[in-house]
Structures are given as structure tokens and as C-alpha cells.
Write a structure and sequence with these properties.
Helices cover 51% and strands 17% of the residues. The protein has 156 residues and is α+β, with helices and mostly antiparallel strands. The chain has a three-stranded mixed β-sheet with strand order 3-4-5. The chain has a two-stranded antiparallel sheet with strand order 1-2. The two termini are 26 Å apart.
Length: 156
């Protein structure tokens, strides 16, 4: 059990630091993504054009570093890198929550699904007793980095 917990934590750590902060993933070229979104081919993304990428559109104004109401390619690349780091942080947090649930005796952790978005953790699945639902929620809330817990575990 401890070996499995160690393995999960190690993999979470590796996933968090595997991608250097300054490099976009090799599989996705920011220039190709940028060009696809830049419908009018002016070299910038307007708020309307950025709507083609939900994560970029969500934080458009924070990524618009010069405040000109549009994203340059450099601002877009930064936004994509920021999002990639967020995804890795969420994956690491998911792994830490799963490890904490696995380490807790009496919680059927394999019956519980854990999803994380921006530090908000959603638990779902089926467990045999109501007390397990609340214990799983408390264990999850105690994990460092968890901002909120949406406990959708049902008793079966």
C-alpha cells in the first residue's frame, strides 16, 4: 500500500515538473493555433477571435499585458503556457487527492472518481455508507492545494 502511494506521489511530482515553464508542448505549435484563431490575419487576436479557445477567452484581459484589447502572438504563447502549467498543477493535485483517499482506511478509493479544475476538486462515484461520503470529502479538503470540494459521491 505504501509503495503504491509513493508511486502515485512520485508520478504526480514528475508530471508537474516534466514540462519546462518556458516551452510550449512539442505536439501543439502555438503559431499554428494562433494563425487558426486569427481570422482576419492581422497578427493579433481580438476578444471575438480568442473566443475560439475557451481557456484563453476566459482570462483574455489578464493575458492582454499591454491592455490594447487584443493579444499579440507573444501574449498568446504566454497564455497557452500558463494554461499548460495550470493543467499540470490540476493533474498533480488530482494525484495527491487520490493518494490521500487510497491511504485512508475504510474508504473504497477505487470507487471514487476525482476531477480537478483550477484547484476545485469534484468527487463522484458510489460508496456503501453515508459516513464514507463525508470522510472522503474531509480527506480531500485536507489536501494541500484544494480550494474547494464538490462532493457528488452517492450511497449505493
Amino acid at each position: 500500500m505504501r509503495a503504491l502511494l509513493f508511486l502515485v506521489l512520485t508520478l504526480a511530482h514528475v508530471a508537474l515538473w516534466a514540462q519546462p515553464a518556458g516551452e510550449p508542448p512539442a505536439a501543439v505549435s502555438p503559431r499554428a493555433d494562433f494563425a487558426a484563431l486569427d481570422k482576419n490575419k492581422d497578427g493579433y487576436l481580438s476578444k471575438l477571435e480568442a473566443a475560439g479557445d475557451r481557456e484563453i477567452a476566459k482570462r483574455f484581459s489578464s493575458f492582454d499585458a499591454d491592455g490594447d484589447g487584443r493579444l499579440s502572438e507573444a501574449e498568446y504563447v504566454y497564455a497557452k503556457q500558463y494554461n499548460d502549467r495550470r493543467v499540470l498543477r490540476d493533474a498533480a493535485l488530482t494525484a495527491r487527492v487520490k493518494a490521500a483517499l487510497l491511504a485512508e482506511k475504510g474508504i473504497p478509493s477505487l470507487s471514487i472518481s476525482v476531477d480537478t479544475y483550477e484547484g476545485q476538486v469534484q468527487l463522484s462515484g458510489f460508496v456503501p455508507a453515508p459516513d464514507i461520503v463525508s470522510r472522503a470529502g474531509r480527506v480531500t479538503a485536507s489536501v494541500s492545494g484544494v480550494r474547494s470540494v464538490h462532493n457528488n459521491i452517492a450511497v449505493k
